[in-house]
Amino acid sequence: MKILGIETSCDETAASVVEDGRILLSNVVASQADIHAGFGGVVPEIASRQHLLTMLPVVERALADAKLELGELDGVAVTHGPGLAGALLVGVNSAKGLAIAKGLLLVGINHLEGHVYAAWLEGREPEAKPGFPLICLIASGGHTDLILMEGHGRFRLVGRTRDDAAGEAFDKAARILELGFPGGPAIQKAARERHGKETKFTRPYVKDSFDFSFSGLKSAMVRRAEEKGIYPRKDGAPLDPQTVANLAAEFQAAIVDAMVDKTLEAVAEYGVNGVVLGGGVAANALLRQEMSRRSPVDVVVPSPKLCTDNGAMIAAAAYFHLRDGARYEWGLDVVPSLGLG
Ligand code: KG4
Ligand code: ZN
C-alpha cells in the first residue's frame, strides 16, 4: 500500500511517499526556518502563506523521487491537527484536492500519532520487538507528552507539560543566549563548547504525576543570565561564548534529565516493554544518549531527520489506520487543538 503523507501543521511544508507504513520511497521537507528566524519564532500568517507557495512543488518532488504518478497511490494522508489552523488548512485542502482528482482514499492523521509512527519507518516490522505496551515520549515545539501505546492506534495520555513544551523551552533559552532559531539544535551545538564549571539548574519535577513543567527553568535561565551580566544585552557588547556555552550545556542537561526521569518512572509504573522517542526534541543527541543509557528496556529512536516534522510519519500512521479498516469522510476538517489519547 503506497501512501502520500502531507504535513503542514507548523513551519515545514512536507510530503513523502511511504509503502506499507515503513518503507520510505521519498521524503521532501521544505523548511521555512530561515523566514521565521528573524522573528524569533513561527509567525502563523507567514507560515500559511508560505505553505500555499510551496505545497505543490513539494508534492511533485515527492512523487518524482518515488518514481510514481499520483494515480498509482492508494491514499493521501494529511495532518489535520494539532497545529496552526491556517497552516493545517493548506495541507488538508491540498490533500482533499489530490485525493478527489484521482479517487484515492483520504486519511486525517493526528500530528502526535505521526511522531510516534516515525519509529516504524526505516523498515521496522509492524509487530517488531520490543512489542507493546510502549511508553512514547513525544517532545516538540508545541508538545511534551508521555503516551502509553497499548497497540497500533491505541493510545492513552499519561503525562504532559503543564506549561511550556520542551522545544519551546529550548527556543526561549536560545533567544536569551542569542543563539538563533530554532533553539534546540543551536543550544545543542553551543553546549559542545562548554568548558569549566557552571552551577547546575535545579531539575524541574512535578510530584506524584507524570507531568512536566519547563517554564520555571526558563525563568531560572533569565535570572542566571542577568547575574552573569549578559541579559538584557548591553548595546554592542558581544556575549562571552564560554558563558553562553556553559549555560546552554546546563540548560540542556536539566531538560534532558527531567524528560528521562519521568519517562523511566512511567516505564516502571506501566511495566512496558520499550520506549519510543519522537518529535523535534528527540533529535537531541544528549536525550537520545541518556535515554538509551539509563533505560532498563529497549529504546526506539528514529533518525534525527525523521524526529522533526515530516510527511513520512503521517503516511506511516495512515497505513495502520487503513490496514485496520478506517475510512474517512470528505468533510475532514482541521482541529488545531486535537489531543492524542
Ligand atoms: O516536531 P517539531 O519539528 O515541530 C513541532 O511539532 O513543534 O519540533 C520542533 C522543535 C523546536 O522547538 C526545536 O527547537 C526542537 O524541536 N528541536 C530540538 C532539536 N532539534 C529540533 N531540540 C533539542 N535538540 C535538538 N537537536
Ligand atoms: Zn511536530
Q: Care to describe what's here?
A:
- The structure is a single chain.
- This protein is an alpha/beta fold and 341 residues long.
- It has two domains: 2-117 and 305-322, ATPase, nucleotide binding domain (Nucleotidyltransferase, domain 5, 2-Layer Sandwich), CATH 3.30.420; 131-301, ATPase, nucleotide binding domain (Nucleotidyltransferase, domain 5, 2-Layer Sandwich), CATH 3.30.420.
- The protein contains eleven helices and ten strands.
- Strands 3-2-1-4-5 form a five-stranded mixed beta sheet, sandwiched between helices. Strands 8-7-6-9-10 form a five-stranded mixed beta sheet, with helices on both faces.
- Helix 5 packs parallel to helix 7 (215-227) and helix 7 packs antiparallel against helix 8 (241-270).
- The longest helix is centred in the C-terminal third of the chain and has 30 residues, at 241-270.
- The relative contact order is 0.19.
- It binds 5'-O-[(R)-(carboxyoxy)(hydroxy)phosphoryl]adenosine and zinc ion.
- The site of 5'-O-[(R)-(carboxyoxy)(hydroxy)phosphoryl]adenosine has 19 residues, from helix 5 and helix 6.
